[in-house]
Design brief:
The protein has 73 residues and is of the alpha+beta class. 44% of the residues lie in helices and 16% in strands.
Length: 73
């Protein structure tokens, strides 16, 4: 615990995905006190043309009240 899922458009290099996972892991360790071995990060690529239906309407809009960071679009 915790398991973090990042959904994003395709096109980010593997190198930058690894960098993002490292930054997220470090931030989670710092703020929760959990060890690195307890943290997992998944990166899921969602095509731009599917984003509004598959992510925004399905996951963001129904959960706006619990999002700690809301999108600006």
């Amino acid at each position: 615990m915790p398991h973090i899922v990042v959904k994003m458009y395709p096109g980010v290099s593997e190198e930058n995905k690894l960098k993002l996972a490292k930054i997220i892991t470090e931030g989670v360790m710092e703020t929760t006190g959990k060890p690195e071995l307890a943290i997992s990060v998944d990166i899921v690529e969602i095509k731009e043309e599917s984003w509004m239906e598959d992510v925004y309407n399905a996951e963001i809009v129904p959960n706006l009240d619990r999002l700690y960071k809301k999108p600006g679009y």
